[in-house]
Every structure is written in structure tokens, then in C-alpha cells.
Amino acid sequence: TKPTVIIIGRPNVGKSTLFNRLVGKRLALVDDQPGVTRDRRFGDAEIAGMEFQVVDTAGWEDDDPESLPGRMRKQTEVSLEGADAAMFVFDSRVGLTPLDEEIARWLRQQKVPVVLVANKAEGKQGDAGIYESFSLGFGEPVALSAEHGEGVADLFDHLWPII
Ligand code: GDP
Ligand code: MG
């Protein structure tokens, strides 16, 4: 069976755009577990012949930081159990926010390998956020534009060794 890579990040960083970019027309098994379907989408992805299942999540899409340990986060944890790797997406134009830091802290406690993704990096507009993101401790980010497609193929080099 194919390895599974889960997309994680705060709202609006471009997780679903990246999912759609990776999956293209190859949609998508449905997870019909009650209460789970809404927050996760599965699709078959392929980069340069490397095939994997990708999972789009909405598990952190709750803008009240007080509720982070709640139901939605729980579902992200459940998703992570079956994952071979996580793509942790942030918005390189905005830079790191407190919620990004919170998710990063949580991810560092998980066993799954993490590929850091600096999205919205078309042009040079993400450069400051890209440098800032080294502080997260996940190594060099993959700078890309999910919307325009630039840099998406670079995910290959980061995912191939770990999935
Ligand atoms: P999610 O909430 O993390 O799933 O984010 P979405 O995929 O829904 O995207 C949030 C917003 O960011 C949308 O308006 C997208 O069009 C925009 N977006 C996503 N990827 C990019 C990108 O690479 N560059 C730019 N400029 N905007 C993007
Ligand atoms: Mg989304």
C-alpha cells in the first residue's frame, strides 16, 4: 500500500490548495467514519513517479486558542497515527503566528517525520518568513506556491527519503 502524508497547519495557509494541487484529478477515497469525514479528505498524489496518499485536514481550524485541545485537535492526532510523514504548512508571507508555534510544539512531540512547507512563496514575497521558519527546528522549509505550482516538485527530495 502507498505511504500516507498528512497536511497540517493553521487555517488559511493553503493546505487545501496544496492538496488539490497534489491530487489533481485523482480524487479521493472517502473516509465514512461518522464525525471524521468533514475534517479530512483523502486523495492519491504523485510527484515524479513517487506515489502516496495525501490527507487534507481541518483539525486546527478553530481560531480560539483555548479550544485547541478539543475535538478537532483530537481528530488530527487520530489522522497522524496512520501517517508516514506530515507536511506542516505555514504562510511565508505572513510569517509565523502564535498558532503556528503552537502546532509546531505539538508536532515536535509526535513521532512522525515532518516536512516544513513555506507556502505562498511565489515571487520573493515569502523570503522573510522562510528565514524565520528555521527557528521551528524542522530544518529547511520547502518553499513553494500551491496556487501557482512553483516549487511543488521540490517536495519530492524531502519526502522521498522518509516515506
Ligand atoms: P487552508 O485553510 O489552509 O486549507 O487554506 P486554503 O487552501 O483554503 O487557502 C487559503 C487562501 O490562500 C485561499 O484564498 C487561497 O487561494 C490562498 N492560497 C493558497 N495557496 C496560495 C499560494 O501559493 N499563493 C497565494 N498567494 N495564495 C495562496
Ligand atoms: Mg482547507
UniProtKB/TrEMBL annotation:
Signal peptide: none annotated. GTP 1 binds at residues 9-16, 56-60, 119-122. Residues 3-163 form the EngA-type G domain. GTPase that plays an essential role in the late steps of ribosome biogenesis. Associates with the 50S ribosomal subunit. Belongs to the TRAFAC class TrmE-Era-EngA-EngB-Septin-like GTPase superfamily. EngA (Der) GTPase family. This is GTPase Der. It comes from Erythrobacter mangrovi.
